[in-house]
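Researcher: We're teaching a course module on how sequence relates to structure. For the next exercise, students receive a sequence and then see the predicted structure as tokens, so they can try to spot secondary structure elements on their own. Here is the exercise chain.
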Amino acid sequence: MPEFTINRVTDYLKHIPSSSQMECRVAFRGQGSDWPLVPSLCRSPHACIGPKANWQSYEQTILRIFQREAPPCLAQPPSDIIEWIALAQHHGVPTRLLDWSFSALHALYFAVEDLDASRDGVVWAFSPPGFYFGRIEHYRDLYELDDVWLYMPRHLDQRMTSQCGCFTIHPLPKGGEAFTPFSPAKGHFFDWSRYRIPGAEKDDILHQLDDVGINAHSIYPDLDGLAREIRQRIRRQSLLGPDHQNTTWTQKII
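Model: And here is the predicted structure for the students to work with:
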């Protein structure tokens, strides 16, 4: 598996894989640290669900709560089980999905946005052999999945579209067994590559991404994203020091 160290956005663009496919393109995942590729449902504290529990009933309980309480907040409800799971994942509910993006630059943003210089960021990239296109209307259909699939959901809000989002769907462990992290070593038929971003370079790369229009507001196209982008720009100005403060324009109100 190819691995690269990235110190600048231009380094990254030299090495990312390209694809001429209309749909089955390269998927990227950015992380602020080199965590194992484990869906949120199977991470701690969920990773220990008890000797009498099983992953299927645990997943159904969480999703049932979301399905019951979410409809008043939805302009358009999901049409099947997998869309409900994708929507839940999108809003931070623990699920069997992992977030990916078809945008290499968006994934790089996710790898550096925490600005934690004490740990290196990572971007994973892989080329799947195909997508899962089928509808999953019942839990029994969901539990028939026995391999990892890349799933491109119907975009139910603007944030999904802006982030060029897609997911990997992972089979649940049997009974209460632990989840085995998704990785090239697991024997999946994907072409993998990995990019390490030194923690000390996160700040500069975040600024370089902003220079090409990849920032908090383009990633999160709502008022929270706009506020986050403004805070990032204020921080960038403060890092430049007093000699650069006169580059900030002040509008005179007449």
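Model: If you want an answer key for the exercise: The mean pLDDT is 84. Residues 33 and 193 are 16 Å apart (CA to CA).
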